[in-house]
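User: quick one - fold this with oxa(dethia)-CoA bound?
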Amino acid sequence: MMEKINAVITGVGGYVPDYVLTNEELSRMVDTNDEWIMTRIGVKERRILNEEGLGTSYLARKAAKQLMQKTNSDPDSIDCVIVATTTPDYHFPSTASILCDKLGLKNAYAFDLQAACSGFLYAMETAASMIQSGRHKKIIIVGADKMSSMVNYSDRATCPIFGDGAAACMVEATTEEYGIIDSILRTDGKGLPFLHMKAGGSVCPPSYFTIDNKMHYLYQEGRTVFKYAVSNMSDVTEEIAQRHGLHKDNIDWIVPHQANLRIIDAVASRLEVPLSKVMVNIQRYGNTSAGTLPLCLWDYEKQLKKGDNIIFTAFGAGFTWGASYVKWGYDGDKI
Ligand code: UT7
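Assistant: Sure. Structure tokens for the protein plus oxa(dethia)-CoA:
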């Protein structure tokens, strides 16, 4: 009998831009303050890519380059690149295609994956399935977003939340019992009224009208999104834990989407997992959309051990959401 192929993460690279947008600076731009932002969201500062002419592929390229170095990867060995993003450089061609050129990949094909803040989770499951099929050996998955390109910095209800950043993981074939073991992913399409960009797509292409009416910004009805995020993320996280006999004593880490510290708290407390086992960097980066999960791995990589039981969970526009169970494949930081 043929040995089962698993898909394991073999490295992490990341990048956040240098510019730090603090709550103090934001409170000079809109009617807000550090106390409100810290208690309602939990963000202290976020990074902004403010150099003109640079888009999401710049963030993705920095992250993927570091990943290639850390994993000592020959560009010719990469089969595929998947970039999860909601803020592509262009409508077309894909940000992933631009990345292929920047990384000098000759044997890869590449595409963008759009699942809003759940994009990285979907990319992980997609790459895992591609590798388990036996048809791919080595895939780069990237979560990258330049959220500042669609945030309205005169809307105090949304501008404190988001930041720019990217991180990438190498996903490779192994016959060891490690890697991306299982996922529960969902999409219901019910979220459209509550989280979207009104114009710029095929329903409502750009025009003077859409510009004048500020229709090219991220629109969110926060309270509704909050409720769905808590209940849907908690449900799937609990479901995947039960399916694999995971509970507070044998879960090593939870990696939650970084949208709001109160959402993270609620999801962790449903599983009775203490916050010390929950990856949190929202205070430094805010919500980088598809970037949040891999940026957590990037920050916590040193603390990870081979065999750690990790549950990832995310929620985003669509609505899209899900949870994945990963058995981590290596010890500590790979430099
Ligand atoms: O990543 C994709 C998924 N997105 C999410 O998961 C986001 C989910 N939603 C949230 O995280 C929260 O709903 C927000 C952080 C967006 C908002 O927090 P909230 O506790 O739901 O606040 P709210 O919208 O209900 O507003 C409460 C009050 C309002 O004032 P009144 O009407 O009670 O007088 C707002 O006008 O807070 C006011 N407010 C602010 N005050 C100071 C809203 N934004 C601000 C602000 N500073 N920046």
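One thing worth noting: The chain has two domains: 6-177, 181-334.
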